[in-house]
Amino acid sequence: MINRRTLLAASAASLAAPSILRAQTVKKLSFYYPIAVGGPIPAIIDGYCKDFQAETGIEVTPVYAGNYGETLTKAVTAIKGGNGPQMAVLLAAEMHSLQDMDILVSLDEIGLDAAGKAWMAGFYPAFLANSRAEGKVWSVPFQRSTAVMYYNKAAFAEVGLDPEAFPKTWAQLQAAATKLTKRDASGRVTRWGIKMAGDTGNAQWTFGALANQVQHVLMNEAGTETYFNHPKAIEALRFWRGLASEAKAAPEGVSNWPQLSPDFLEGNAAIIQHTTGNLTNVRTNAKFPFGVAGLPGKDGPRTVVGGGNLYFFKSASQAERAAALQFARFVSQPGRAADWSIKTGYIATRPEAYETNALKDYVAGFPAADVARGFLPVAVGELSTFENQRVYTALTNNVQACLNGTKTPEAAMVDTQAEADRILKPYKKA
Amino acid sequence: MLKRETWQAWALILPAVILLVAFTHWPAITTVLDSLYTTPKGSRPPRFVGLENYAALWDDPVFWTALRNNAVYAFATIPASVILALLMALAVNTALPGRPLVRMAYFTPTMLPMIAVANIWLFFFTPDYGLFDRILAVFGGGRHNWLGDAATALPSMIAVAVWKEAGFFMIFYLAALQAMPPDLQEASNLEGASRVYFFRRVTLPLLMPTTLFVLVNAVINAFRLVDHVVVMTHGGPNNATTLLLYYIYEMGFRFWDTSMAATLTVVLLALLGTLAWLQFGVLGKRVHYR
Asked: Does residue B176 belong to any structural domain of this protein?
């Protein structure tokens, strides 16, 4: 029986023990994750955590924290309050901002041995685009996606377009979208050719893809400079605006991201630009044959990646950091990465996952699931700078003003650049 | 040496004082202090800058947009919801078949959480096949991108707020109407006063204390109720629906610029304080309390 004295002695002993000793026997980790797509995500994550505990004895408590924005808010607030998680899945593009808050620890600092370095080299390069800064790696790709086009094959056939050949250039896309736009006798549009999201939180993603489609890079790797007032960026915005103002194939004003899937499923939009993560939802609910295609480009297909990476936090102890990295390697094993991709629609982050039988069989039975992977070689990273959300807001406001017809593409881009310059001024090294 | 009663009195109000200080006054004071420093960033500690944050706010076009939006929002929602509430209260105060049902129907929007309301209205506002566009289509109306068009986004937000609030204020008016002694009505009937005259000279003055209370609440709500903005527009398009409180949230929790958020909070506090002082000081004098 434990009496008071032994209890006191025991607690005194544990207090006296060097902190490093206690830290080495890490038993518990917590990590925050967001949900941005449909599907039973919590059950899948819980399963991975249980498997990890069975293998290593380390208990990982997953905390569902809302969408990407909310998860970021909660994780940062918790860390600032001194009771944060050891790791979290946050937007890949938030790297510079998180680094600026001085709450991240790089993988290099946690310690990557030769095997670890080989493991990092095994990810698709496009997914690592938003992980590198100052010569270090700051995050591990996890729930990654790219933008793809969902299109209504029945509508394509109806207007005499080949349902198996999705447009590959801007000119083709605009022509197809114009053809697909259907009006009733009174001139009221009953089906829009194309819809792309321009609402807050999504406008920068849509625009990032368009910029890459004219082969324009919007920022430097250090995240301290942006290039919005470049003629190519203006051209990208002009194309977006033109779909509504010239081609009349897209609605005036801003289309909202959450509305795109219902619009597509209702037959109100023939083409939508959305994430690969939406595939399972569309597959389940579409009452017509649909196709998935890579984004076109000015001259040929080009797209942008998106989604979340695993970040590790400075506030964790040495041992906790190591355990968190161990967890990251655990979930990126080929079998698990394949399982994650099949259950969610996200792209497996490593080529070797596509060598597993599970994913091979799945893709054979459902070729649409493999479309996005083919476009990874022409994908770039997301717009990512210091003060990321501020730059996003500056861009979003101006894009929305342009889509509403109150600013020309030129004015919108020049204003965005001026605003971004002002925001990023403290980060420019003289 | 303090008297025993004094000690007792202090002891009795101490719990309330502690709560008030801990959750109201202390945060308010630290907010004012924070607004005089820069935002701490990783390696850079906060630095005293005096009123520089306020100067920066003065030069911030989004702040002025938010202020203007909030003014429009307040001037539209307050009279609309109060008048609507009074009309609804008068309607359900008369003998009417199915009166409890009508009262409940009027009150339902108040019982729903704003987040749920916003999601319902998102469907109403959906372009092409949403409720409003379908109804308008019957009359030959075209397509409206209610929330995506800078011209209609703020009026849409106002409509949601009025719909949500009117039922709540109706309850107060209804209670006041019920508490009104029926002999007043009988006396005026004997005197041959018209219904309009009775309403203008008897009912309305007697409702003034309620109106003041409702107005104070309506003013506070016009600055406080932003949940639907978060759900429906995120302040877009191009800040057309950014209200002050939403801007504070964005500053504090999206941009992590805590100093600017504190500065904005101080401005909002000052604004609300002035409004409350005006209402109680000016309007309060003209209110007739029995």
From this structure: yes
Query: B141: domain range?
Result: 60-241
Name every residue whose Cβ is closer than 8 Å to that of residue B162 and which is 6 or more positions away in sequence. B76, B77, B80, B81, B84
Query: Does B11 map to a domain?
Result: no
The helix/strand/coil state of B1 is coil
Contact A387 B237 (CB under 8 A): no
Give tens-digit pLDDT for A40-74. 788 999 999 999 999 999 999 999 988 888 898 89
**pTM recorded for the entire structure:** 0.83
Identity of the residue in B234, B237, B239 whose CB atom sits nearest the CB atom of A201: B234
The CATH number given to whatever domain includes residue B147 is 1.10.3720.10
Q: Which residues of A touch B123 (CB under 8 A)?
A: none
Q: Which residues of B141-154 are buried (b: 16+ CB within 10 A; e: fewer)?
A: eebbbbbbbbebbb
Number of domains in chain B: 1
Task: Give phi and psi for A192, each to the nearest 5.
Answer: -85, 145
Closest CA to B230 of B213, B203, B249: B249
Using H for helix, E for strand and C for coil, what is the string for B22-33? HHHHHHHHHHHH
Which of A94, A105, A252, A259 best probes binding to B when mutated, by most B CB atoms within 10 angstroms? A259
Q: Is A251's CB within 8 Å of B236's CB?
A: no
Interval B159-175: pLDDT, tens:
999 999 999 999 999 99
Q: Is residue B41 part of a domain?
A: no
Q: Is A251 in the B-facing interface, judged by CB distances under 8 Å?
A: yes
Round to whole Å and give the CA distance between B52 and B73.
29
- Would you say residue B234 lies in a domain? yes
Complex ipTM, two decimals? 0.77
